[in-house]
Amino acid sequence: MAAATKKRLLQSAAFSPKFFSTTASRVLRTGDTLRQTRVFSCEDILRYSEVSHDSNPLHFDPEVARSSGFEDRLVHGMLVAALFPRIISSNFPGAIYASQSLHFKTPVYIGEEIIGEVVATSVREHKNKYIAKFATKCFKKKGDLLVIDGEATAILPSICQQQ
């Protein structure tokens, strides 16, 4: 964009700082939505179980899962919820995850495509850092069924998103 065009945009009465910041410099604003998609594999379940020491047979034995009323083996709910800090930290390196509430709505099965979504609900500056609150949700790609609902708070070193 030519310098003269930029100058006219800045002087224009129709200029919108929010539009400019979210489009040009990708500054986080209330209402902004960030998403990532993930498919959880058998390997993911095994690795998470090894680290967390959660060896509940619902995650490993299809017969136990079915006798408990599920279609098949389940992905650990906390593994699915790990999408939220992943989304935040990949957009804001150095972010500190401060809190998270979770409501598990629907089971996730191995191989299902899950969409993690965080929506900024408030952003405020505090001592040269930013406190950001997010509505957090995960959906099954197939049918857009809500899997997890919650809220998160993170301390961001900057509100400029990494691209």
UniProtKB/TrEMBL annotation:
GO terms assigned for molecular function: (3R)-hydroxyacyl-[acyl-carrier-protein] dehydratase activity
Domain MaoC-like: 35-129
SUPFAM superfamilies: Thioesterase/thiol ester dehydrase-isomerase (SSF54637)
Any single GO BP term: fatty acid biosynthetic process
One Pfam family it belongs to: MaoC_dehydratas
Record's GO cellular component terms: mitochondrion
InterPro entries: HotDog_dom_sf, MaoC-like_dom, UPF0336/Enoyl-CoA_hydratase
Protein name: MaoC-like domain-containing protein
